Amino acid sequence: MPDITPHDLESVLRDWDGEASVARFDRESGAWIFIALHSTVLGPAVGGTRMRVYPTPADGLRDAQRLGESMTLKWATLEQPVGGGKAVLALPGPLDAEARRGLLRRYGGLVESLRGAFGTGEDLGTTPEDMALLATVTRYVHGVEGGHVTDPGPFTARGVRRGIEAAVRSVLGRDDLGGVTVLVQGVGDVGYPLARELADLGARLLVSDVDAGRIERAVTTLGATAVLPEEAWDAPCDVFAPCAIGGVLSASTIPRLQCRIVAGSANAQLETADDEARLAERGIVYVPDYVVNAGGAYAFALLGRGERDEARLLEHMDYIGEIVDAVLAESKSQGSSPLAAAGQRVSRALARGR
Ligand code: NAD
After folding, report:
1. What letter would DSSP give residue 44?
2. Are 255 and 287 in contact (CB under 8 A)?
């Protein structure tokens, strides 16, 4: 990892409007540990732990801050008594298993020392095994109970499905998904269970993924039609569901989209703030990512309150559909964008918390 000047980290710290950033250099592994506490207006901060190699530590800190802010939006959308935060373990390069465990133990010690100001769970680059290990060091790991680690994917997927149903009602005037064409981009932990539910509901399913094995699974088990990753933008469909990576809605992809609705689990789907207007100009309704992908977070909040029954947890994901209904109705009645309507919902929740 290239050396950075103190100024890099300093400017990232200074330019952020969050409440506090915790930074620790882990000498043994060479990794930086960053915990970004964006807002505790609604309660103690909770967000996942991301682990990956960044070009510089300042990039890792910026990512933690950006993701922490999106957790504030998510918890406020859900009207939960939880604040926004995120942790990033910025690695100098790939770690062997022993070094990884050591880093996680020391990171767990740091989380424990914050005495509940930050709680965490799995995110990109961390695994259920990592969470089980963390839970041996700190009480503030969510979704781990007696060694069992809950996978948020199916809950996020159910929430996205409810969000798609709500958007299809609002935009297409259809009460069911029979014959509605949905392109699921990325059939992984969220995209695959989502695709399965959509197939069960009679949707016409298109899938794309960079992993040939995952495409094969969706084609053979769900009867989906495969679309090459670079052709996903051009495929005619009613709903485009990004469930892979962020930044997929951009000046270069939006003109190619052949859909009426965008609704999927990927975080930070808009590459820039201008991309929402680009979608609106094309008559495409964008369901804000942090609204429609909040199911996993919501499931963890319910688990924290003692709900253990998986079927009931899945039923609770109807709430995501209700929120999407409300956001799209407000957007229609005010003539504002869905993102603006979602922002107003967040502002109202934060104002009540102050
Ligand atoms: P995952 O890694 O299990 O699945 C992602 C899939 O996308 C993989 O199959 C991967 O091969 C594929 N992919 C990667 N790049 C691609 C590309 N350019 N084109 C097509 N496919 C591509 O991840 P996941 O847990 O399913 O999460 C998917 C997205 O949803 C991520 O952006 C994640 O941040 C977000 N998200 C996930 C959850 C959750 O509960 N897991 C919750 C909220 C948001």
Report:
1. S
2. no
Q: How many other β-carbons are positioned within 10 Å of the β-carbon of residue 189?
A: 18
Q: What is the C-alpha to C-alpha distance for residues 123 and 244, in angstroms, rounded to an integer?
A: 13
- Cβ of residue 63 lying under 6 Å from some atom of ligand 1: no
Output the CA 54–ligand 1 centroid distance in Å.
19
Is the predicted pLDDT of residue 293 greater than 50, yes or no? yes
Task: Put residue 247 in one of left, alpha, beta given phi > 0 → left and psi -120 to 50 → alpha.
Answer: left
CA of 290 to the centre of ligand 1 (A): 14
CB 146 within 8 A of CB 303: no
Q: Does the pLDDT at position 145 exceed 90?
A: no
Note whether 94 and 64 are within 8 A (CB).
no
What rounded mean pLDDT belongs to the chain? 95
Mean predicted confidence (pLDDT) in 280-304:
96
Starting at the earlier edge strand, list the strands of the sheet with 225-226: 225-226, 204-208, 181-185, 239-242, 261-262, 285-286
Per-residue model confidence (pLDDT) at position 308: 87
User: How confident is the model over 219-242, as pLDDT tens digits?
Assistant: 999 999 999 999 999 999 999 999
DSSP-derived secondary structure letter, 308: -
Supply the DSSP symbol for 233. Answer: G
Query: What is the reported pLDDT for 287?
Result: 98
Using the predicted structure, report yes or no on whether residue 116 has a pLDDT greater than 50: yes
The CB of 132 under 6 Å from ligand 1? The reply is no
Cite the active site residues: 86
Element (H, E) at 150: none
pLDDT at 4 (0 to 100): 53
Task: Determine contact, residues 325/166, Cβ cutoff 8 Å.
Answer: yes
Dump pLDDT digits (tens) for 192-217.
999 999 999 999 999 999 999 999 99
32 neighbors 23 (Cβ within 8 angstroms): yes
Sign of the Cα pseudo-torsion (126, 130, 134, 135, in order):
positive
Backbone dihedral angles phi then psi of residue 247, each to the nearest 5 degrees: 65, 20
Q: For the beta carbon of residue 259, count every other beta carbon within 10 angstroms.
A: 21
CA 205 – CA 196 distance, rounded (Å): 9
